[in-house]
Write a structure and sequence with these properties.
The complex is a heterodimer of chains A (about 70) and B (about 170).
Chain A (H helix, E strand, L loop, with lengths): L8 H16 L1 E3 L2 H10 L5 H12 L6 H8 L3
Chain B lengths: L6 H22 L2 H17 L10 H20 L7 H8 L9 E3 L2 H13 L3 H10 L6 H7 L4 H21 L2
Helix pairs in contact in B: 1-2, 1-3, 2-3, 4-8, 5-8, 6-8, 7-8
The chains are: A mainly alpha (about 70), B mainly alpha (about 170).
């Protein structure tokens, strides 16, 4: 039968702190990797798209055929 | 997302807006200004679509607009701190920091420390680091955008990475 080891409050605290650090310490091999991660977690606020939609609404859109040529769509 | 505008423009925004916003955020160091800049860059792109010849990628084309836009803003505001020789001494004399990993305790402090480290770099180094961190960008494309050779970009990036790591570690 397995015996459960009882930890003292101090040991419990140390274990808890170690676990927290394990969760929060992040390590990056290079500046590139860090910036890539930072960029990946950056969210463009939805307000930008809304403002853009309002601003561009008054500007004549390019013709459909012109868009198709640029994007090479069918 | 961009209802009422051509679908293709909406797709362009969806695919590239994060990269443009991130570049503006880290170049300008202010989320609100980055929002304004992202709006202005895509509006300019919408207006100038007929000048796109397909010689570069959409991403490169948008980056070019964004870089020029941010440079103009920085020149007119004249409010960002200027790079000085004193700053240079901080990382020029630092040990080769690129060999050891960069550690950060919490995600929330990461952005702040990255901004501080970038702000401590010469503008050219800052821009090169941000562009090359984008996996869609090659050394040749970054060289084209910054009007220099790919070899020059490689050399400067080596120094930029070292400088960034040194300043970042000092900010802990």
């Amino acid at each position: 039968m397995k015996r459960q080891m009882k930890l003292t409050p101090q040991e419990q605290s140390q274990q808890h702190t170690a676990a927290e650090q394990e969760q929060t310490v992040r390590e990056f091999a290079s500046a590139d990797e860090m910036l890539r991660d930072d960029a990946a977690h950056t969210v463009v606020p939805p307000a930008v798209a809304e403002r853009l939609r309002e601003s561009a609404a008054g500007i004549p859109a390019p013709g459909r055929s012109w868009w198709k040529r640029l994007f090479k769509t069918d | 997302m961009l209802a009422g505008l051509p679908t293709e423009f909406g797709e362009l925004y969806t695919e590239h807006s994060r990269a443009i916003f991130y570049l503006a955020l880290r170049l300008l160091g202010d989320p609100e200004k980055a929002q304004d800049a992202t709006h202005d860059v895509f509006l300019k792109a919408f207006r100038k679509m007929d000048t796109f010849r397909g010689e570069a990628s959409w991403r490169t084309w948008l980056y070019r607009i964004a870089i020029n836009h941010c440079r103009n803003l920085q020149q007119s505001w004249n409010e960002r701190h200027l790079f000085s020789n004193a700053d240079e001494a901080v990382w020029e004399n630092a040990p080769a920091a690129t060999d050891s990993p960069l550690r950060v305790l919490e995600t929330k402090e990461l952005g702040e420390r990255i901004q501080k480290a970038l702000d401590g770099l010469p503008p050219e180094y800052r821009l090169l680091l941000l562009l090359i961190a984008d996996e869609q960008m090659s050394y040749e494309e970054v060289a084209d955008l910054t009007e220099q050779s790919a070899d020059a970009v490689r050399g400067k990036l080596h120094r930029a990475r070292k400088a960034f790591a040194a300043i970042f570690k000092q900010s802990a």
